[in-house]
Amino acid sequence: MYNNMGYGPGMMALGLFAFLGPLIILVMLWSVFWKGLALWHSARRGQPWWFVIMLVVNTAGILEIIYLFGIAKLKFNELFSYKEHGHHN
Questions:
Q1: Contact between 35 and 54 (Cβ < 8 Å)
Q2: Are 51 and 43 in contact (CB under 8 A)?
Q3: Mean of the per-residue pLDDT values for the chain?
Q4: Other C-beta atoms within 10 Å of 46: how many?
Q5: Which of 32, 61, 74, 83 could form a disulfide with 78 if both were Cys (CB 3.0 to 4.6 A apart)?
Q6: CB-CB neighbours of 67 under 10 Å
Q7: Does pLDDT of 17 surpass 90?
Q8: Would you state the pLDDT for residue 13?
Q9: To which H or E segment does residue 35 belong?
Q10: What distances in angstroms separate CA 64 from CA 16, 17, 23, 57, one per listed residue?
Q11: How far is it, in rounded angstroms, from Cα 72 to Cα 57?
Q12: Which pLDDT does position 9 carry in this prediction?
């Protein structure tokens, strides 16, 4: 079946992918960034359970942001700091 512009389902799907493709890539990059940062901090803090949970559960960065700012209580300027973390369980 064709829509009123004469395009078939294949062309519509291609147009949808052209629109959603960059959005999906941005969400993936966002998620990988926050996951990597949170995994790094949880490992340095000696919190293996948080490390495993964040490694397995994919929340597009939401759980990782909650961990970094709510659980680890880091400030934004501490996210990329190499200072030694305290060990908390």
A1: yes
A2: yes
A3: 84
A4: 13
A5: 74
A6: 23
A7: no
A8: 74
A9: helix 9-44
A10: 30, 28, 20, 10
A11: 18
A12: 66
Report the Cα 68 to chain-centroid distance in Å: 12
pTM here is 0.70
Q: Which residues contact 63 (CB under 8 A, 6 or more apart)?
A: 38, 53, 54, 57
Tokens at 44, concatenated? 């340095």
Who's near 48: CB < 8 A, 6+ residues apart? 42
What pLDDT digit, counting tens, does each position of 41-86 carry? 999 999 999 999 999 998 889 999 999 999 999 999 999 887 765 5
Residue-wise pLDDT tens digits, 65-74: 999 999 999 9
The string of DSSP codes covering 52-84 is HHHHH---TTHHHHHIIIIIS---GGGTT--SP
Residue whose pair of structure tokens reads 């960034």 in the numeric block: 33
Q: Any idea which residue has 């990329």 for tokens? A: 80
